[in-house]
Design brief:
The chain is α/β, with parallel strands linked by helices. It has helices at residues 2-30, 44-56, 73-85, 118-125, 148-155; strands at 34-38, 59-62, 104-112, 115-116, 133-139, 160-161. Strands 1, 2, 3, 4, 5 and 6 form a 6-stranded mixed beta sheet that branches. The longest helix has 29 residues, at 2-30. The relative contact order is 0.17.
Length: 165
């Protein structure tokens, strides 16, 4: 399982690298402010977010739920399924950075039940992202991004959402 996860992370990094370098070059050329926002349950999405931070010099916000998810994997799987079916958006702690102050925002999520994790939905729905360039990224167990990025577009229709990795 760890090998599969490592391979997936490496694959995501390779795919995301051109977008990261483009954002980094753009930041240097135009002084755009870059923010990396992510939710991570197992640590994989956090690892990828930190690599993006290192490449771009971005500020970072980790989305944290007010009520933490259970530590037992199957309990989280079951809870995530229910939350998806009910379009539930869990309460999240207030971020210490305001996305309105940034030009480019990387948004990272694990893929849960074929879409973004509910805390990421909460974050996107609770911030005005109109006119922002959104660079989505995800981690997954082998099923791909599924509807994660198209669902982001639905939640932030006036943002410029780039193809995800």
């Amino acid at each position: 399982m760890k090998l599969v996860t490592a391979i997936l992370c490496a694959f995501a990094i390779l795919i995301l690298s051109p977008a990261v370098w483009a954002a980094s070059s753009k930041q240097q050329a135009t002084k755009n402010k870059i923010l990396v926002v992510f939710f991570s349950y197992s640590g994989h999405t956090k690892e990828l977010a930190m690599k993006i931070k290192k490449q771009t010099g971005a500020d970072v916000v980790q989305i944290r739920t007010v009520k933490p998810y259970p530590s037992e994997y199957q309990a989280v799987v079951n809870q995530a399924k229910i939350e998806k079916e009910k379009d539930f958006r869990p309460a999240i702690n207030k971020a210490d950075k305001n996305p309105a102050d940034y030009d480019i925002i990387f948004i990272g999520t694990p893929v849960w039940w074929y879409t973004m994790a509910p805390p990421v939905k909460t974050f996107i729905a609770s911030h005005k992202l109109e006119g922002k360039t959104i660079m989505p990224f995800c981690t997954h167990g082998g099923g791909g991004a599924s509807a994660s990025f198209s669902d982001m577009k639905k939640l932030a229709p006036k943002a410029n959402i780039m193809p995800g990795s």
